[in-house]
Amino acid sequence: MMIFVNAFVVGGIICLIGQLLLDVGKLTPAHTLSTLVVAGAVLDGLDLYEPLIDFAGAGASVPITSFGNALVHGAVTEAQQSGLIGILTGIFQVTSAGVSAAIIFSFLAALIFRPKG
After folding, report:
1. Could you give the residue ranges of the DSSP H alpha helices within 57-113?
2. Cα–Cα distance between 71 and 47 in angstroms, integer?
3. Could you tell me the pTM of the whole model?
């Protein structure tokens, strides 16, 4: 039961930070998104994001900060195995499934619902 509470609290804190960046920091949504992705990347570079995922589960792996985490984690893992070329291949390998899923599900949603444009 605690994993649900941890996920709720950590996910809520990440969302709170994003909302504060929008409201108090007067950042645009694009700047807020970029800031949260970079924060996730920096936290992974400092080996702090994986323990956060272990603690909070989906509360840390679902928000946009986990995208930055995935980019850095994939690059570092592949760089250790394949050298410098692994930096690029690792980024594409780790994030390709998520980006592909987003494109496919967005297309399916556009087929089912009538988008207004």
Report:
1. 58-61, 65-82, 85-112
2. 13
3. 0.75
